[in-house]
Design brief:
Keywords (chains A, B): Magnesium, Metal-binding, Transferase
CATH superfamily of one domain in chain A: Farnesyl Diphosphate Synthase
CATH class of one domain in chain A: Mainly Alpha
Protein name (chains A, B): Polyprenyl synthetase family protein
Radius of gyration of chain A: 20 Å
Family (chains A, B): Belongs to the FPP/GGPP synthase family.
Largest sheet of chain A: 2 strands, antiparallel
Shape of chain A: globular
Distance between the termini of chain A: 23 Å
Number of strands of chain A: 2
Strand content of chain A: under 5%
Largest interface: A-B, 38 and 38 residues
Order of helices and strands of chain A: HHHHEEHHHHHHHHHHHH
CATH topology of one domain in chain A: Farnesyl Diphosphate Synthase
Cofactor (chains A, B): Mg(2+)
Oligomer: homodimer
GO molecular function, one term (chains A, B): transferase activity
Helix content of chain A: over 70%
């Protein structure tokens, strides 16, 4: 099945959303961030999961939009915390307006996300909101862990996986679960879909870490080695730190806190050389594959005909093979 | 009726709430702000309204707690925006930790407020969450207007009333409405109680403006004239600006942006003198009484025996006569 029809439905739904009018300072930033686009993967996952149980996905459209609004709320607040100047190549909200406006507009977006879920069938409302709230709190926990890890010397790989699970993966898992629950899928199916999404999400984030170092510069869209330059504790870096010889460790540590432009190229080159010596690329690819295989096992366990699951499987594979 | 039994129920309920454990950086600030106390007026209003329809208020306890958690979420985020160093005489969360933590802990509090409402009877859940979400967005709008007004030269009294309605009054109105809705009160009653709360809320905020200038220093707890010193556009100031003679206007304007400690006493004295000449105190008291009378009309219209409403009426009068 072609996902472009679903994507079009999502874009049409998002374009009809009304966030509010007055005061303009509060609502213009919401329209702005929602207009910056993005792949709209989360609402697509909602609809794809919904479609497994009912061809008619109309009643999943507003809930799908809710997930996208929630996701953009987290981006708006994360960008303040990370002092990010750009989002999808455009000024972030706190840069274009200011931090106070970004805090408050984000708060309203979280409320609007809940409101978009209130149209769910009454017999499913409580369950949907419980799952959503649990996920929302977990995403915040993930962001807090991410900030904590920046300040810490030592982070284990297990802790790192826990962080990206909360910060990124659980929302993908929730998206799929939501689509299933809305259409009255069996609980076990909904849970397998959620686990599928979680594992794809972890693999997706590891792929992100990998592309930062080993991506194709022309396709990646961002500077290669950005994570190395900013001393980010990615899966690659944490694995290297665990396995490095004293000499390799010295090389990595000697580059810490050196973020000057003048030595940027050399820093990326030398740290990448250590990665190469340790086979970090292959290890990361292996880890991505492990999570992806785990994801597929959960998808296989979902009790719908195999043919019906082809689109979701294909999308997941595309996410794994993406180069940007 | 004595409200202390209800207050005790509220405090007991609040003390049993569990916000989360890990990461500590996220949850400790929530426990901290909730431990700072406060009058807990909003949950008390929920229970008092609930009691009008059913002596048993047990099922209103968690929803009442939700309103208090929501209120403290707004305080946590407002304090960042207002760069407030103190809250209830203690360090604010962004001062004690940092702004990022205050943003994120606030976000989780908003989620927790929703979660506390999810136990509501299924047939009332959607309505309760719609009312709550509408109110939550309005409170954000009020905060945005408040920030806008700080930057603006001219603010009309009507705009000011609109701002305090959104920022302060609607949550009091919602608290009462919530209590009524939870116990299956007729819609007209719920709406009258909401209007009662709105009008009490406006009167309450105007009383706050009044106490800042004409309060008893020993009882008020804050510095007298704080609003004058910080050039805050209160009801008193806006009324004075509308009615001032050219000479009085000159006096007020000449003090703008002068916030030095050395001239603080003189500034408060001179601006207060203009207020005195214009009879601003009496006019504000008159306005407070107008809103309070309007509130009482709505309370009178609530279709329960008059005796049952005595406690709510008494509480409202105490709020009006408070000196701190």
């Amino acid at each position: 099945m072609d996902t472009s029809i679903l994507s079009e439905k999502i874009n049409r739904t998002l374009s009809t959303l009304r966030y509010g009018e007055s005061p303009t300072e509060l609502y213009e930033p919401i329209r702005y961030i929602m207009s910056l686009g993005g792949k709209r993967i989360r609402p697509l996952l909602v609809l794809l999961a919904a479609k497994l149980y009912d061809e008619d996905v109309e009643k999943a459209l507003l809930p799908a939009a809710a997930v996208e609004v929630f996701h953009n709320f987290t981006l708006m607040h994360d960008d303040i915390m990370d002092k990010a100047p750009l989002r999808r190549g455009q000024q972030t909200v706190h840069e274009k307006w200011n931090s106070n406006i970004a805090i408050l507009a984000g708060d309203v977006m979280l409320v609007r996300a809940y409101q978009l879920l209130l149209g769910v069938a009454p017999d499913k409302l409580q369950k949907v909101l419980e799952l959503f709230s649990k996920t929302a709190a977990e995403v915040c926990e993930g962001q807090q862990l991410d900030m904590n890890f920046e300040q810490r010397e030592q982070v284990s790989i297990q802790e790192y996986i826990q962080m990206i699970t909360l910060k990124t993966a659980v929302l993908l898992g929730f998206s799929l679960e939501l689509g299933a629950v809305l259409q009255g899928a069996p609980d076990t199916d909904a849970e397998h879909l959620q686990q599928f999404g979680n594992n794809v999400g972890i693999a997706f984030q590891l792929r992100d870490d990998l592309l930062d170092v080993y991506g194709d510069k022309d396709k990646f869209g961002k500077q290669i080695g950005g994570d190395i330059l900013s001393d980010k504790k990615t899966f690659l870096m944490l694995t290297a730190l665990e396995q490095a010889s004293p000499k390799q460790l010295e090389t990595i540590v000697s580059w810490r806190n050196k973020t000057e432009d003048a030595t940027a190229e050399e820093k990326v080159k030398e740290v990448t050389a250590v990665y190469d010596q340790l086979g970090i690329r292959q290890q990361t690819e292996q880890e991505i594959d492990n999570y992806f295989q785990k994801a597929l096992q959960h998808l296989d366990a979902v009790q719908v005909p195999k043919e019906a699951k082809v689109t979701i499987r294909t999308l997941a594979m595309q996410l794994m093979e993406r180069e940007a």
